[in-house]
Amino acid sequence: MAIGQNPITEIISRLVSSVQSQITGLTAWVFKLQNFATQAAQGAQQKLQKFMRTLTKKPTSKKDYWKVLGLYFSKRFVVMATIITCVLGFLAVAYGYPWAEGKLWRATIRVDSEKYSYFTGKAKVIDTMNQTVYIGDMEKGKPQGYGTQYDGSGNAIYEGNFSSGRYSGDGKMYNSNGIVIYEGSFLNNKYDGNGKLYNDIGKVTYIGEFSVGQKSGKGIDYDPKTQLRTYYGEFQSDLRQGYGVLYDTDGSTIIYEGNFVSGEYNGNGKLYENGNLLYLGDFVNGVYDGEGNLYDTDTGALVYSGNFKEGQYDGSGKLYDPGTGVIIYDGNFSKGQKQGTGSSFDSLGSESFSGTFRSGSIDYIQYLNSTVDEVTSQFGQESYRTEVDNKMILTYLSLDASIVFKIDSNKGIYVCEKVVIGTKDEFMGLGAQSTAMERREVMGEPFSSINFNMPNYYKTILRDLSININDISKVPSDKYIMDQYFIRFYFNDGRTELKCIEICSM
Fold first, then answer.
1. pLDDT at position 496, please?
2. How far is the C-alpha of 305 from the C-alpha of 320, rounded, in Å?
3. What is the mean pLDDT of the chain?
């Protein structure tokens, strides 16, 4: 060590020199290794090229062939075939299989798989329990095109066309027993267009048009038992709406033809009975209402022409004799009975009375206390006029009635005391064969029920009206007290037949 040099500096200098020497040696080794690798790679490449040239060159000698099981194969052919096979195999696995799945063969996909959300092609879709829920065409994870949908038990519930996962186009729906319950057109999972409905055992119940899952448009209803039509016409929202024809159980005899609203006869229409026209006119909620004509279904003759309300004569109208066609009444009605002003006619069509009616009969009550002239001005010429026992009796055979007058002591003239009517026509809906219950429903409870002793002048009335009562001294009767008048019903012995009715002032 030189005199004056620092020992620490000397040590550091030696360490640096040693490290530099080691690095230089390592670098030289790395260069040698690199040169060796390069030379090895070049040698391998040369040998591979030579090998490939040998294998791929055109065969010129026996050494260019491989002998396998006594057969010679060109080395060139084998190498090229192997390379091509490997390339094609790689392409098939990498690209061909994904493309072909769903196109060349049907794919099986679980609904909870990622693949399900984007798959396009033919598929069998299974749920998490490996139960088939759909078989058919798909696009981007939704049924699209033709396919079949299944329920959780593996039963087909729909077979047909889909669009964006919904039933759209032609298809069939099945119940749990595999029976078709609908076949036809769909739109957005609803019946829409032309189709057929079946019941649960496969019998047709409807053929026609649909909209939004309901019968709408023209169609035919069928009886599922007989398979005969029951209705042909228009529908709306599953109800008969618009023009239609309703048929009897034979599928051909018409019951009704005309307009419907919400399944009921509404508007103008025709109603038939046993194939014969019964009514022609307006309906409201299934009953006659408005203007119309009623016919005798046996003869086809007109019975009534005029206004109806809630199925009954109501308003102005005309009644006809169905046997002769002659008008028998022209006037006003209420709740099916003559009510208000009107005119009645005899069998020849001649007017027999023009005035006021009540509850289906002439309102004789209003003529009580009227004079003879006042009565004849309304009733016309009487059939018989008789004065007996200080009574004047005017009999009108066409009305089956006798009007009885007494002397008014104050006026000194005849005034109407009572009216006696026979039972050829009904009075307030009550006829000769009316029952006690029917009379009670119309008249209420009688004030009295006695054997009444008819006055002697009744013999004239009974004779003129051809009423047969054996003993006028004890005629079974019921009396009903009204306001300022009373009504008495007279019966035969045993009360089995109503013989006549008396309306009398108090």
1. 94
2. 8
3. 89
Longest CA pairwise span in the chain (Å): 193
* CA distance linking residue 421 with residue 467, whole number of Å: 10
Give the DSSP H or E segment for 34: helix 7-56
Q: Domain span at residue 383? A: 361-505
pLDDT confidence of residue 164 = 95
pLDDT band at residue 3 under the 50/70/90 scheme? very low
Cα angle value 172/106/96 (rounded, 5°): 145
Res. 1: pLDDT tops 50: no
Question: pTM of the prediction?
Answer: 0.70
Q: How far is CA 316 from CA 288, 306, 320, 342, in A?
A: 14, 6, 14, 9
Q: With residue 56 as reference, give the H or E element that holds it.
A: helix 7-56
| Residue 440 counted as domain residue | yes
Same-domain status, 341 and 383:
no
- Both 251 and 302 in one domain: the answer is yes
**In the block, residue with structure tokens 């959780």:** 152
> What is the rounded distance in angstroms from the CA atom of residue 420 to the CA atom of residue 427?
11
Q: Which amino acid is at 3?
A: I
Measured in degrees and rounded to the nearest 5, phi and psi for residue 324 equal -115, -20
Structure tokens at 358: 């009540």
Which of 191, 184, 240, 182 lies closest to 214 in space, CA to CA? 191
Number of H helices, E strands in the chain: 6, 32
Q: Are residues 227 and 247 in the same domain?
A: yes
CA–CA distance, 452 with 474 (Å, rounded to integer): 5
Could you give the CA distance from residue 427 to residue 173 in angstroms, rounded to a whole number? 63
Residue 56 binned pLDDT confidence (cut-offs 50, 70, 90) = low
The beta-strand segments (E) located in 380-444 are 384-388, 391-396, 401-408, 413-421
Contact by Cβ (8 Å): 309, 318: no
Quickly tell me which residue has 């390069």 as its tokens: 38
Using the 3D structure, point to which of 356, 374, 390 is the last residue of a domain. 356
Residues 197 and 301 in one domain: yes
Number of other residues whose CB lies within 10 A of the CB of residue 261: 17
For residue 287 the two structure tokens come to 């009953």
Instruction: Record the tokens describing residue 310, joined without a space.
Output: 């809630």
Number of domains in the chain: 3
Axis-axis angle for helices 7-56, 75-91 (nearest 10): 110
Per the CB < 8 A criterion, the answer to whether 478 and 439 are in contact is: yes
Evaluate whether residue 246 is within a structural domain. Answer: yes
Please, which residues bridge with residue 334 across strands?
337
Q: Give me the sheet containing 391-396, strands edge to edge.
A: 384-388, 391-396, 401-408, 413-421, 498-505, 485-491, 475-481, 448-452
